Amino acid sequence: MKVIIVGCGRLGAHLARRLDHEGHDVTVIDRTSESFSRLGNDFQGKMVLGTGIDEDILRRAGIEGADAFIAVSNGDNTNAMAAEIAKLVFQVPRVVARLYDPVREDTYHTLGLMETVCPTIMGSNKIHDLVSGNGKAR
Fold first, then answer.
1. Mind listing the pLDDT tens digit for each residue in 85-113?
2. What does the buried/exposed string (b/e) look like for 85-99 if buried means 16 or more CB atoms within 10 Å of the residue's CB?
3. What residues have CB less than 8 Å from 104, skipping those under 6 apart?
4. Residues 64-85: pLDDT tens digits?
């Protein structure tokens, strides 16, 4: 599977390494070259310096042949816009965006433009379950 990941922070790098080790064709886009050091020396994928909302950068990353697109930069606006471009302009079949803002996440999820992951809601739910006795501590 050809996967493009926008954002090489902790989550993006971890996901890229995992998919790479599973044998997927992974390309990571990030605005700072220093971020690519998180991928490690054994990363076999491609690294593209730039922003995930620039169509030329996305083309250089191979978006036209991508099976999946994952936007996990630190900015909700960047993630939402990059995901919309991937879905609407390049018709990538599977698009996922991390959105920290629960209201924004709900809006995009309701519109069905992309799959969304909201760590704010996920974390809140987990902590609620642990405090209320519905969950077990790890």
1. 999 999 999 999 999 998 887 787 777 76
2. bbbeebebeebbbbb
3. 76, 80
4. 999 999 999 999 999 999 999 9
Asked if the model's pLDDT at residue 138 lies above 80, the reply is no
d(CA 31, CA 35): 8
Rg (CA), the chain: 16
Nearest CA-CA partner of 121 in 131, 111, 129, 110: 129
Spatial distance between the Cα atoms of 55 and 103, rounded to a whole number of angstroms: 27
Looking at residue 112, which CATH number applies to its domain?
A: 3.40.50.720
DSSP element (H, E) containing 132: helix 119-132
Range of the domain at 32: 2-132
Rounded Cα gap, residues 18 and 84, in angstroms: 25
The one-letter code for the residue type at 107 is T
Overall number of domains in the chain = 1
Q: Quick one: pLDDT at residue 136?
A: 61
